[in-house]
Write a structure and sequence with these properties.
Number of helices of chain B: 12
Distance between the termini of chain A: 29 Å
Number of strands of chain B: 0
Number of strands of chain A: 14
Order of helices and strands of chain B: HHHHHHHHHHHH
Shape of chain A: elongated
Strand content of chain B: under 5%
Strand content of chain A: 25-35%
Largest sheet of chain B: none
Helix content of chain B: over 70%
Radius of gyration of chain B: 19 Å
Order of helices and strands of chain A: EEEHEEHEHHHEHEHEEHEEEHEH
Radius of gyration of chain A: 24 Å
Strand order of the largest sheet of chain A: 6-7-8-3-9-10
Distance between the termini of chain B: 23 Å
Oligomer: heterodimer
Largest sheet of chain A: 6 strands, mixed
Chain lengths: 302, 243
């Protein structure tokens, strides 16, 4: 196992930040760590990178214990902290060389330019970090986390505050890296997790509430079915009243979202109904329950 | 350790700090030694460098805390401590890297004062009429004193994320260890019985003893243990986040 966390518990004073959290990540897996603010994502990551101690439980990365083998563990892990702390007075190249030197990277200069290429920092390489925009700072943070080609990459909200273009570039970068290496990254943007990850771990109030393949997760929770229709004729939501096993109707612009109770063939019912009324259907689509809905449900439940 | 050392040195020399520290030190010293009539060697009529070694500790008392105050406070403040602590560096590497960088800067500031030694040596009548033994002893004392101040300053900086507090605390601690024991020993209660012991607790006693030109291992050991004590305290403070 690449990352192995067993019954991890952490208190901040009397507040319990993590409650017996256990999970494991296989080599080569990209896992999204999802949860609302204050759920314990960062705490967990800080423990994994052996920055803060845990109160009980155990955590191992690549077979190395975070307490006992901290030094050799840090050599194998690349970590991007949430606040992305950087030395603002350093130049991009200088900073990357500094980090590379700590990691005793061979062929330092070459590796630094490689990272600059990879993260698209070519135009900014000779600038001071202070003068970079947030997106570029984030790239510098990613570059420093990956400069020693770590086996495991731990990224704490790597895409926070980026514009849509930068977002997709950074995602691509993470995905590319994740082809051979293990990546654990946190986020509270569900689409992102859906776009990058094979697997998602949802954490709420210090407890893991879901840990599954994304595809399985959306299936298992999908007891309700929602059908989205657009009708040519001008009608109101009232017009759908009396439909079999219909639970809820909501109007979204020209579209109506019809929610049916368990395991009914919603599309068939809608089609029958529309046919009876002699309406013209312009659009009929099954709405998949998104990760976002699952997230809402799971993090409100507990 | 050397990667941290290198980073610190570069940051001193690529910002104003390093040059400001050196120039303030040298300008103040130069003014007192050669320009102001009350303290000028030229009016003193003796070929001695006592002004240099009397004044430098007081300039260092403020200058070294000013250099060291940012060492850890700034890292705490902007969060880069998390970056350093999650890299394969031992806490001792970080402490020593920063410590040696501060000392290097202080020694660089002291280096040009060797010109004063030559000047006074040359101005003496007859030429060379200067107690060089006392000079080298004093230099050793001054270096050890500066190294102790640096260790104290580094420790003070590791206690807080506020640079001003780090500075003030370092000045206070340096002052207490440098001079206060000298003053305390003058209380009538102590006078004549344990005043000698109290004096030996302070740096001043050992500094003066070294500046006589006789290098006593007890004085050297005193300074070295002070340095080691504060460096270990700093390391302990850093690793206390793991408790």
């Amino acid at each position: 196992m690449s990352i192995e966390v067993n019954k991890l518990t952490k208190y901040y004073g009397t507040q319990q930040a993590l409650k017996e959290v256990s999970f494991s990540v296989k080599p080569g897996e990209i896992v999204g760590f999802l949860g609302p603010n204050g759920a314990g994502k960062s705490t967990c990551m800080k423990i994994l990178t052996s920055y803060i101690p845990m109160d009980s439980g155990s955590a191992k990365i690549a077979g190395l214990d975070v307490d006992l083998d901290a030094l050799s563990l840090k050599k194998k892990v690349g970590y991007l902290p949430e606040q992305n702390p950087l030395y603002l007075d350093m130049y991009v190249k200088e900073f990357l060389s500094f980090v590379g030197r700590i990691h005793q990277v061979n062929d330092l200069q070459q590796r630094v330019s490689e990272m600059i290429d990879m993260t698209g920092l070519n135009l900014e390489a000779a600038k001071k970090i202070r003068s970079l925009s947030k997106g570029y700072k984030q790239r510098v943070g990613l570059a420093q986390a990956m400069i020693h080609n770590p086996d495991v990459l731990i990224l704490d909200e790597p895409t926070a505050g980026l514009d849509p273009n930068q977002l997709s570039e950074i995602r691509q970068l993470i995905q590319e890296f994740g082809r051979e290496k293990t990546v654990l990254f946190s986020s509270h943007i569900m689409q992102e997790v859906q776009a990058i990850c094979d697997r998602v771990i949802i954490i709420n109030k210090g407890k893991i509430v879901a840990d599954d393949q994304i595809s399985l997760l959306s299936q298992s929770r999908n007891s309700e079915e929602t059908i989205r229709v657009k009708i040519k004729e001008v009608i109101s939501a009232e017009a759908f009243k009396g439909m079999k096993s219909l639970e809820k109707v909501s109007q979204k612009g020209e579209f109506f979202d019809l929610t049916f109770s368990e395991n009914q063939n919603g599309a068939e019912i809608v089609f029958q109904w529309v046919n009876d009324k002699n309406w013209t259907v312009l659009h009929l689509q099954q709405v998949e329950s998104s990760l976002e809905d699952i997230f809402h449900v799971l993090t409100k439940e507990s | 350790m050397w990667s941290v050392y290198r980073k610190e040195i570069v940051s001193f020399l690529s910002s104003v700090t390093g040059y400001l520290v050196m120039s303030v030190f040298l300008i103040l010293l130069g003014l007192f030694m050669w320009v102001f009539p009350d303290t000028s060697i030229l009016n003193y009529n003796y070929a001695t460098l006592s002004q240099l070694f009397d004044l430098s500790p007081f300039i260092f008392l403020f200058l070294i805390p000013a250099i060291s105050m940012r060492s850890f406070s700034e890292e705490f403040q902007i969060g880069t401590m998390e970056l350093l602590s999650t890299k394969p560096l031992r806490d001792a590497d970080i402490v020593l890297g920063k410590y040696f960088a501060i000392i290097t800067l202080v020694f660089l500031a002291l280096l040009p004062t060797l010109f004063y030694v030559y000047s006074v040596y040359d101005l003496g009548a007859p030429r060379g009429n200067i107690d060089l033994g006392a000079v080298w002893g004093s230099y050793l004392g001054l270096l050890l004193l500066a190294a102790s101040f640096s260790a104290i300053g580094l420790f003070a900086s590791s206690l807080t994320s506020n640079q001003i507090i780090a500075f003030l605390f370092a000045v206070a601690l340096c002052f207490i260890l440098y001079l206060s024991f000298q003053y305390i020993s003058k209380f009538p209660v102590f006078y004549g019985n344990i005043d000698g012991i109290i004096q030996r607790l302070g740096m001043d006693y050992h500094y003066v003893s070294l500046s006589k030109g006789l290098i006593d291992s007890r004085d050297v050991i005193y300074f070295l243990s002070l340095i080691v004590f504060f460096l270990i305290s700093t390391r302990v403070k850093l690793s206390s986040r793991k408790w």
